[in-house]
TrEMBL record:
Protein name per its UniProtKB record: Fe-S cluster assembly scaffold protein NifU
Gene3D superfamilies for the chain: 3.90.1010.10
Gene label: nifU
Coiled-coil segments: none
InterPro entries: NIF_FeS_clus_asmbl_NifU-like, NIF_FeS_clus_asmbl_NifU_N
Pfam families (UniProt xref): NifU_N
Superkingdom field: Bacteria
Gene Ontology terms describing biological process: iron-sulfur cluster assembly
NCBIfam families given in the database record: NifU_clost
Domain named NIF system FeS cluster assembly NifU N-terminal: residues: 3-124
GO molecular function: iron ion binding; iron-sulfur cluster binding
Amino acid sequence: MEEYSKEVIEHFLNPRNVGEIKDADGVGEVGNPVCGDIMRMYIKVKKDIITDVKFLTFGCGAAVATSSMVTEMIKGKSLEKAEEITNINVAEALGGLPPIKMHCSNLAQQCVKAAILDYRKKHEK
Ligand code: FES
């Protein structure tokens, strides 16, 4: 476990915002082509601000930690700002990821984008 930062291990052991939102305004689901892991993310949006977010993942420890971190990063942010977050930002916020695990951080960031896209499709003309 030495190659993982304290933050990654902490978020893996105590992931934030795990679960579903039944009346979500947007839902994103993505699969990681590298490993086949999948993730689903639910968002609530009010006046262009993400007021709540939850995720479920069938993925590795790095996927759990990055999704946990990304949910903390986007909560309270505007849709636009949330879309600007890159997987590198998420990995940095976690104190880095082993290079072999960087692909796992794509899942979290793409899932945010997919949830926002779904929200836009349903609520914007
Ligand atoms: Fe699949 Fe990390 S190994 S997301």
